[in-house]
Amino acid sequence: MTVNRLIALDMPASSEFANYVRNAWDSGDAVFPIDQRLPQAVKDSLIKQFKPSVVIDSSGISVEFSDSEPTQHNDALVIATSGTTGTPKGVVHTHSSIRSLLAMSQERLQTSSSTHWLLCLPISHVAGFSIVARSILLGNPITVLSKFDENEVKNAALAGATHVSLVPTTLQRIDPTLFNTILLGGAVAPPNLPSNVVTTYGMTETFGGIAYNGKPLDGVDVRINNECIELKSPSLFRSYRGLNTNISTGSWFETGDSGTFDQDRIRVLGRRDDMIITGGENVWPNAVEKVVATFPGVMHVVVSGVDDEYWGQRVVAWIVSSREVAPSLDEIRQHVKSQLPSFCAPVEVRVVKDIPMTSLGKVDLQSLRKLQ
To answer: CA angle at residue 150 from 145 to 153, to 5 degrees?
Structure first.
C-alpha cells in the first residue's frame, strides 16, 4: 500500500523549489514550505509539530524522520498560518481546493495559461505559493524572485511579467504602471489605488483571495451570521494538520472576521478578536484608524486595545508623524470625537518612528506593543 508523505521544503523560492513541488505531487505526496526568515529553533518546532517524512534544504540534502505522519490521498499542501498570537496551525489543502481557487481567479481576471506571473512574495504563504501552483497546474510562465527587490521587480516587468501579487508595503515601493494587473492582499488597502490594482479578501484556509474588490468569485457563497463573515468555497482547506477538524466544502466556514455583505460586496470591519471592548462599549480599530489617518501630519496609524484594570481595555493609537512636533493626545481625541462616539477616542497616543510589519504587510502587533 502506497503511503502518501509530507515533504518539507526548507529553501527559498526558485525553479528548484518548483521542481521539488512538481515531483512530490507526481508521486502523490504533499509539500510543506518552510518560512526562510524563521530562526532554526522555530523551524525545528514546526517540523516537530507537522511531522513530515523528510526535510529537503536548498543544497538538496534530505533528512528523513521516523516519527512522521502520512497525508491523505489528494492532499497537496500543508501551509502554516501566521501564528502571531499563538501556535501556528498547519492548513491542509488538496489538489481540488488549489485548482478551484486558481480556476475561479483565472475566470475573474480573464487570464489564461499564457499569462506571465511574477513571484516576489514568500512561498511559505499562499499568496506566494499560488504563483508556483499556477505554473505547475495551469502552465503559466513565471518569473521567480527569492525575495522582494524593487529593481528586480522592475526588471521582471520589463522582461515580460504582466501580473503580480503584492501587499501594501511592497506596492508603495514600485511603479504600479509596470503591470497589467496587481492583486493586493495581506492588509487594509491604502486609499486612491491605481485602476489596475485589485484588492483581495481571503485567508490561508481559502488558499488566498476568494473576493476581488469586495465581490466574491464565482462559486463562492457569503453570508453574515451574528456580524461574522461566513463562506462556502470549493477552495476551502480539508483540515488542520494533526487536528480532527475536517472541513467540508458543503459547510459554512466561520472566518473570524466581522463585516457586512451588501449589494454583493464584502465589507470587512476587522477580526472579531481585534474588537476593543472598553467600559462595555465596542470599538472597531479600523474605524478609529481611518479618522486618525486624516489628521494633518499622520503618516501611519495603528489602533489597538491594551488591557486596563478599570476599563477592561483602553484604546491606544500608535502614530508615525511627519511633523516635527507630533500631534498631542488632546488633538487626536478631539479629532476622533468630531466624527465618532467619544468612547472611540484614544486615551493614549504613542508616537513611533515606524510600524513593525510582517512579510505579508500585516501589522506585527506583538512587536508594536513593545514600542513606547
So the answer is: 45
Residue 351 grid cell? 508616537
Distances (CA, A) of 335 to 288, 318, 321, 339: 10, 15, 15, 7
The answer to whether the beta carbons of residues 249 and 234 sit under 8 Å apart is yes
Residue/partner pairs of 254-260 with CB below 8 Å, 24 or more apart: 254/225, 254/228, 254/230, 255/203, 255/228, 255/229, 255/230, 255/231, 256/228, 257/228, 257/229, 258/227, 258/228, 258/229, 258/284, 259/224, 259/227, 259/229, 260/224
Cell readout for 214 is 469586495
pLDDT digit string (tens) for 90-134?
999 999 999 999 999 999 999 999 999 999 999 999 999 999 999
Q: Is the pLDDT of residue 290 over 70?
A: yes
Place of cell 508556483: 132
CATH topology of domain 275-368: GMP Synthetase; Chain A, domain 3 (3.30.300)
Q: Which three cell numbers stand for residue 39?
A: 530562526
Location of C-alpha cell 470625537: 337
pLDDT for 127-179, tens place per residue? 999 999 999 999 999 999 999 999 999 999 999 999 999 988 789 899 999 99
Read off the C-alpha cell for 327.
500631534
* CATH architecture entry for 6-270: 3-Layer(aba) Sandwich (3.40)
